[in-house]
User: What shape does this take?
Amino acid sequence: MTQIDMALQGRRFGETQRRDLWWLQPLAVFLGLFAFIVYATWAAFQGEHYSYGPYLSPFYSPEIFGSSSHAWFGPQPGWWPAWLPFSPAFLILWAVGGFRFTCYYYRGAYYKAFWGDPPACTVGEARKSYRGEHSFPLIMQNIHRYFLYVALVFLIFLAHDVWKALWFTDQASGEVSFGIGVGTLVLTVNVVLLGSYTLGCHSLRHLVGGVKNMLAGTPIRRRAYACVSCLNRAHMRWAWLSLFWVGFSDIYVRLCSMGVWTDWRIV
Ligand code: FES
Assistant: This one.
């Protein structure tokens, strides 16, 4: 067999022979994620207008301590350090934030969009060595499976929020009655999208799929594997839809609580 020896040429950062709009996708990812991070941080620091009637913003759910009627253990605890700002969102957003941050899809997206590492396929990157995710600090990304366990529990809380969003209290009589408002639908869509994103997780696919590269034997596990794989094929789409909608859900509850929007009752 003939062999040709060729010297590998390193590219400068951003150098490429591609003629297509390769920069468009990383730019859109950068703008989308940046806008979400700025809004979510702002909303988390507000500590108010996160509930309206039976609705609770998903940024604040579950509300462990807080001032709304949804709080499990009452208002801000006395042991909270006085020098530290308090918001119920601080107690939980680390979990869902960590889940997204370590998601396999988002890693690929923000490595390109935020770190330019590389900016796109066959485009020169700034770093000359490749250490992958086998060494510190990126080896920490392997914690994703544990964030998945927490995210699955959060899904149950969010589904329970939808249930609570079906029961409205009459302010005058204090009577509780069944109803469906636009907010109920907003929170329902939120759970469906977050569920589709979470249940299509790569780690969950490995968990239900089997051990040592063998597909697990029982029919139930095979069916579960097929469902997770089906959601996983559109993981990127679920990631973006759920990200957008969870932000919109917070905006909806916030603006209703501030009296800017009216929550129309359908039933
Ligand atoms: Fe994206 Fe697990 S890989 S949520």
